[in-house]
Amino acid sequence: MSIDLKTIKHISKLSRISVDEQKAEKLAGDLNSIFEFIEKLNELNTDKVEPLTSVAETTLKFRSDEVKSENIREQIIKNSPEDNEDFFVVPKVVE
Amino acid sequence: MSDITTQSLTSLVNNIKNKKLSSEEVTQAFVDRSEKSKELNAYITEDFSNAINKAKKFDQNPNLDLKLPGIPMAVKDLFCTENIRTTAGSKILENFIPTYESTVTQNIWNEGAILLGKLNCDEFAMGSSNETSFYGNVQNPIDNGLVPGGSSGGSAAAVSGQLTPITIGTDTGGSIRQPASFTGTVGLKPTYGSCSRYGIVAFASSLDQAGPMAQNVEDCALLQEVISTYDKKDSTSIDFKRNDYSKELTKNIKGKKIGIPKEYRVEGMPKEIEDLWQKGIQYAKECGAEIIDISLPNTSYALPTYYIVAPAEASSNLARYDGVKYGFRAKGENLIDMYEKTRSEGFGAEVQRRIMIGTYVLSSGYYDAYYLKAQKVRKLIKNDFDEAYKKVDAILTPSTPSSAFKIGEKKDDPVSMYLNDIFTVPVNLAGLPAISIPAGHDASGYPLGLQIIGKAFKEQEILNVAYAMEDKINFKNKITDWWIK
Predict the structure, then answer these.
(1) Interface test with A, best of B100, B367, B376 (most A CBs within 10 A)
(2) Number of domains into which chain A is organized
(3) N or C end of chain A, less CB within 10 A?
(4) B411, B464 in Cβ contact below 8 A?
């Protein structure tokens, strides 16, 4: 299997990371060598194996759905690159 | 006392409790040494003057019943610290000032410790050499031009170089144990669920664990006792009976069964690593342990599994960095363009590479072939350990397949960099605790570590084995202070 430039462009779009031609070529090279290494897993037959989704053999605890913190708007907005004191500001999305 | 920074944590705690030293004297000594150690590039953010003030305040009304009374401590810059910048080694969080504190660091301050500053690490903890940090690589105190390992490279260098008496790191695939091994220090990766992940910048949530990095096993046990708590804020935190790790520490490991997995004898492993392992087996026998040959047949599949699971989780976790809620934002022509430029300019090359791998293995048409496959192999790897632990109490292996390498040596070859974690990654996949202890030197005088892997929740067991072996090994780190200006 080989990851071509078209695939790189597709992944770049899915992951919202812009790549130019030069970066795409470098990434294709790197990803191909990494996937060559990953292909080793195909040696194993795992047809009858249950996938492991959590190492902890306990079920997650339930908790009641309660509001724990109130009036933290200021804290939430504090680190935003751009805000108008009440809301996060982003480039215009509706014409 | 001029030798304050050479003392162990335990001895500093005792000296403060016995009023032979004040918190201010201790804090000042570590601040002074840190100031002279800029060459190591161990810190991303310093908080020295605040630290001195807090120490003075502690001394005015000292609570000597605490476990870490007035002890200064620098921590990995992956832990959110309230009102202190937290970068995760990334440009994208260059100006991020958390409004809350991670549970693990809060536990530390609750026991009387004082923050010295935030320590350098690989960007989002993705790396094995500390070279992926936006804030520059860290120098290993062992020798000029040598990597300290990663991702907790700043933490390992700071303990080894005596800039902090002890510290905490995080370990997703070996990020505590590998740098501990490279710097001649002790590092413990606890059982998954032992330490809360609340407030730790997320990398791969099913693998990440915080743990202590120390000069010796006793100090390591003391800090583990402080940081390991059940926490409702982390839904994967586990409510189990935790030991008083430092009080229950014993060198008596007579009759303990220690497994030696034949699959860890990997092709191309340097002879000095094999020799170190044999020496370790000998020491364990001298301590009264019984050595048993075991098999972990799927070991060689651990690294490829890890390089599907970890990037998959990372690609999902790092989706939050969009230039809207916090962190760096690049200018864009529209919203999508802003997202794409922010992430392209804000993340470094290795982080982008891993997000891309993760996105690909989770994408439509590839999920079953990669992600589901990896989860199944992960099950096989865990089964291997379950099977082995029917016969043994702990497992002894080398920590890394080599000693520390030169800065730049492996930077352009991701796969060779990933191979560093060949002995540490299986432990994270299975969620087990493991400790790396310094056990010898290679021909260049660089430290080498041995890893002791335990059963889930049996931190006490591996701390005891490490404590007993540490005594026999009698390791002395060769630190020349070459960087001191």
Answers:
(1) B376
(2) 1
(3) C
(4) no
Q: Measure CB to CB from residue B357 to each of A31, A51, A79 and give the nearest one.
A: A31
Element (H, E) at B272: helix B271-286
Give strand pairing partners of B102: none
Which residues of chain A lie closer than 8 angstroms to B315, CB-CB?
15
Q: Are B355 and A17 in contact (CB under 8 A)?
A: yes
Q: Which two tokens stand for residue A32?
A: 């191909």
Q: Which of B327, B370, B376 sits opposite A46 (nearest CB)?
A: B376
Planar angle of CA B76, B81, B86, nearest 5 degrees: 60
Domain range holding A31? 5-41
The predicted-structure confidence for B120-136, as pLDDT tens digits, reads as follows: 999 999 999 999 999 99
Q: Residues of B numbered 173-192 whose beta carbons fall under 8 angstroms of chain A's beta carbons: which are they? A: 192
- Is B155 known to be catalytic? no
pLDDT given for residue B303 in this prediction = 96
Per-residue pLDDT tens over the stretch B266-299: 888 899 999 999 999 999 999 999 999 999 999 9
- Partners of A73 on chain B (C-beta within 8 Å) are none
B193 is written with which tokens?
A: 């669920």
Side chain identity at B215, as an amino acid letter?
Q
Q: Does the annotation count B271 as an active-site position?
A: no
Domains of chain B with bracketed CATH: 4-257 (3.90.1300.10)
Whether B347 sits inside 8 A of A78 (CB atoms) is no
- Residue corresponding to tokens 């993705």: B126
The helices-and-strands tally (H runs, E runs) of chain A is: 3, 0
Would the CB atoms of A91 and B335 count as touching at under 8 Å? Answer: yes
Which of these, A35, A34, A49, lies nearest to B298 by C-alpha position?
A: A49
Is B151 tagged catalytic?
yes
Q: Strands B394-398 and B290-294: what pairing?
A: unpaired
Question: Domain holding A20: CATH number?
Answer: 1.10.20
Q: Which of residues 32-71 of A touch B (CB under 8 A)?
A: 33-34, 37-44, 46, 49-56, 58, 60-61, 63
Buried b (16+ CB within 10 A) or exposed e, A84-95: eeeeeebbeeee
Which pLDDT band holds residue A12 (cuts at 50, 70, 90)?
A: very high
